[in-house]
Fold this sequence. Notes:
It contains 2 helices and 11 strands; from the N terminus they run E-E-H-E-E-E-E-E-E-E-E-H-E. By secondary structure, it is of the alpha+beta class. It has one domain (4-141): Cyclophilin, CATH 2.40.100. The protein has an 8-stranded antiparallel beta barrel. Strand 3 (34-40) and strand 4 form a beta hairpin. The radius of gyration is 14 Å and the shape is globular. The termini are close together. The mean pLDDT is 95.
Amino acid sequence: MPELSITVGELRFTGRWEGAAPRTVDVVRRMLPLRNKLIHCRWSGEGCWIPFGEEVVDVPWENHTSHPAPGEIILYPGGFSECEILVAYGSVAFSSKLGQLSGNHFATITAVADGSDLRVALREMGRRVLWDGAQDISIEERA
């Protein structure tokens, strides 16, 4: 599968699809190129999210987690809370005002485009979203 190009504000990352979530990957691939705003999580800790409101994505649970690791990207298809994509930059306990949630881990950020330290860049992404406000995000496949 092609690599991913993920841009948050001025930060550029590369990533990969997760083969353990093939149906979720298919759903998200149909959304590409995805351009939206990335905002800081209200409930989950060190993560940022793209809210999709009341939209519900018809995808089963696969490769799901409530505790994505830094760089992991998950899709919550909607139901108890609103549909969203969450990008972890640190410790996350995925939840909403209704309690703990689980999302499908469909992609992982694997590197910073300029070769700098990934964990440092992920933390900087989180800092910018938290302190500077919503950041533009784009996710697309690399040719």
